[in-house]
Write a structure and sequence with these properties.
A: 123 residues, alpha/beta, Hypothetical Protein Ychn, Chain: A, five-stranded parallel sheet, 4 helices, B: alpha/beta, globular
């Protein structure tokens, strides 16, 4: 592998429950971050629901991944958790409903970030 | 151009693998390189060696043998596969089981990683 850090962005587009996409995306994030790449995660569309505070998925026997994102940011050096502002507005989700660690940015700015990426991994 | 491919969808519910097959063939014909296909999420089912579609139907198994014979590496994710019963005993001889590190390698070594 090349020495320089590759800019990689996971794009989370699906709601956290009902499909396995988020869970397996997180598994990939954990593995990728252990290889010291420059990794960021963007939440767009229904993906923004993954970051809402106060979730209790133990009721459906699923881990609470909102905790995992905090660990990814703090311990696994995922550089940014971006949330698209328009996706929040379309769904009536307020910024204060989300984990504090996320960065809410407008669609146009997210598009610029996406342009800088070497790799995009949509989930 | 060097392409890497990530497939996430299962072989029969979705057209995604058919599109991978067609994309890979078209790219190879045009002189591009496919450095590998990584099967993640339900896409690992593509690698099930016991697939047996009815005669006259498009045949996923023959597609993966064809890709392999053209030198394309087919990598089934070990963790996603284990969850779904894809192991050394059940995986097609045209595919290999390996870890997410292979997806990272495809991401970095390719000029473009295409997701289906």
């Amino acid at each position: 592998m090349k020495d320089q850090k590759a800019k990689i962005m996971f794009v989370c587009r699906t709601a956290p429950y009902g499909t396995i996409y988020e869970q397996e995306a997180i598994e990939a994030m954990i593995m990728f971050s252990s290889y010291e790449q420059d990794i960021s995660v963007a939440f767009i569309g229904d993906g923004v629901f993954s970051l809402k505070k106060g979730q209790d998925p133990s009721l459906i026997n699923i881990k609470n991944f909102t905790q995992t994102y905090l660990v990814l940011k703090d311990d696994f050096e995922i550089s940014h958790l971006y949330v698209e502002k328009e996706s929040l507005e379309e769904r009536g989700v307020r910024e204060e409903d989300l984990l504090a660690e996320v960065e809410v940015i407008p669609r146009a700015e997210l598009r610029n970030k996406i342009d800088e990426m070497k790799v995009l991994l949509p989930f | 151009m060097k392409f890497g491919i990530l497939l996430k969808e299962s072989p029969y519910n979705y057209q995604a693998f058919d599109s991978v097959y067609n994309f890979a063939n078209a790219a190879l014909e045009m002189g591009h390189e496919i450095i590998g296909i990584f099967f993640y999420d339900d896409a690992v089912y593509v690698g099930n060696k016991y697939l047996e579609p009815p005669q006259g139907e498009r045949n996923i198994k023959s597609y993966i043998h064809a890709l392999k014979s053209k030198g394309v590496r087919l990598v089934i994710c070990v963790a996603a596969g284990k969850r779904r019963g894809l192991t050394q005993n059940t995986v097609s001889e045209s595919a290999e089981i390996s870890g997410l590190g292979q997806l990272l390698e495809l991401s970095i070594e390719s000029d473009r990683l295409i997701t289906f």
